[in-house]
Design goal:
- The protein has 13 helices and 16 strands.
- It is α/β, with parallel strands linked by helices and 425 residues long.
- It has a domain of 262 residues: Type I PLP-dependent aspartate aminotransferase-like (Major domain) (Aspartate Aminotransferase, domain 2).
């Protein structure tokens, strides 16, 4: 296949892959097409996608409704700067998000990636206090096992043991890490932390119910509700990072809804466009937005990505929201949750398995002992599934449209690979 050789063999020497030691990296798999829950490779194989392309493709690949919406938008207005100009796809999307989100989360600031959405949320929180004459309130509390992005400000909010603090020590803002208050003693400790530092704190940031890249750690709605209540009591803003959990992944449209929590600021991305185009949003409550209204130009939010509110991406996001309205996505998530629980729980009997956790359309198997991630990843591909373990976790986050049969193939592959591993420990 000379056309494959042209772009693959000749192109590989010029790319730099993410999270990869390029000196020892295995050759990445070459993809030529996607459809539904399948990834088709250049060598003719098909893989069942078990992780929705980093948790984005909630409707599967190439959904005709999203494709048609993007094609129509491309024919009229692919992009225009979103400063002094606005367009229908962005305004309709902002209106729909405000209607979907809990409470008065109603002011939408569009960006292109989750990391930047969090950066904007931090700016909002810090400047919220500055605009009210409290410039000293500028530190952020985050939680152990947190992950909020790869930019410098967001790296400072990632678990120092699991994130990238060690690589960039001394170059990032100094923030405060807390333990998730999952029991009474931890609640007292968290409350004391906020009480002690409240005069200097701008916000607490949390991944509601599931901490994603920090190891698929899960906590209950009561924990989230306590964090929200403590923030309100100590006059500290609450930022919900729903970049991974938003749009149905945990069983509610937004994870905060399970705890009846309305954060002051919420960050959205990943599944926002159904996994088609880059788009993110930082959405603020009314009182946060109003703190920026002034005759003083310096009180405005000073941020503006070049491609913010990209019309193609907004059209895709609107089409994705259409599918949540017209197709039974949350019911599908409930079915996935039940099947993951039934079919991954047997892994608890295997040597080298520390825990099995399931929440919505997320299934995680935490490993113990020596872990050869490269071998695990190769073995999954050999079995015809795309599963990419990281850290100590083998996890599944399939598209919501996955059939019970395909999901059973994924869970069977997890059990088989971990059984093989158990025999070698």
């Amino acid at each position: 296949m000379p056309e494959i050789r042209d772009w693959l063999t000749e192109g590989l020497p010029h790319i730099w892959l993410p999270y990869t030691q390029m000196a020892t990296a295995a050759t990445p798999l070459a993809v030529v097409a996607t459809q539904g829950t399948r990834i088709r490779l250049a060598d003719g194989r098909e893989l069942i996608d078990g992780i929705s392309s980093w948790w984005t493709a909630c409707h599967g690949y190439n959904h005709p409704h999203i494709r048609a919406a993007v094609e129509r938008q491309f024919a009229t207005l692919p992009h225009v700067m979103f400063a002094g100009l606005v367009h229908e796809p962005a305004l309709r999307l902002a209106q729909r998000l405000a209607a979907l989100l809990p409470g008065d989360l109603e002011r939408v600031f569009f960006t292109e990636s989750g990391s930047v959405a969090v950066e904007v949320a931090l700016k909002m929180a810090i400047q919220y206090w500055r605009n009210q004459g409290r410039p000293e309130k500028k530190r952020i509390v985050y939680f152990r096992h947190a992950y909020h992005g790869d930019t410098f400000a967001t790296m400072a909010l990632c678990d120092p043991e699991e994130g990238m603090h060690a690589l960039f020590a001394g170059t990032m803002p100094d923030q405060l890490m807390a333990e998730l208050p999952t029991d009474e003693s931890m609640r007292r400790a968290f409350d004391l932390l906020l009480e002690t530092h409240a005069d200097r704190l701008a916000a607490v940031i949390i991944e509601p119910l599931v901490q994603g890249a920090g190891g698929m750690q899960m906590h209950d709605a009561q924990t989230l509700a306590f964090v929200a209540e403590a923030c309100a009591r100590h006059k500290v803003l609450l930022i919900a990072d729903e970049i991974m959990t938003g749009f149905g992944r945990t069983g509610h449209m937004f994870a905060c809804e399970e705890a009846n929590v309305v954060p002051d600021i919420i960050c959205l991305s990943k599944a926002l466009t159904g996994g088609t185009l880059p788009l993110a949003a930082t959405v603020a409550r009314r009182h946060v937005f109003e703190a920026f209204l002034s005759n003083d130009p310096s009180a405005a939010l000073m941020h503006g990505p070049t491609y913010m509110a990209n019309a193609l991406a907004c059209a895709a996001a609107n089409a994705s929201l259409d599918l949540f309205e017209s197709e039974p996505r949350l019911a599908q998530v409930a079915a996935i949750e039940a099947q993951l629980q039934a079919e991954l729980t047997p892994c608890t009997e295997l040597a080298g398995v520390a825990d099995v956790r399931v929440k919505g359309a997320i299934g995680a198997v935490e490993l113990s002992g020596r872990i050869d991630l490269d071998r695990l990843r190769r073995r999954f591909a050999e079995l015809g599934v795309w599963v990419r373990p990281f850290g100590k976790v083998v996890y599944l986050m399939p598209p919501f449209i996955i059939t019970a049969e395909d999901l059973a193939t994924l869970t069977a592959a997890v059990r088989r690979v971990l059984t093989e591993r158990a025999r070698q420990l």
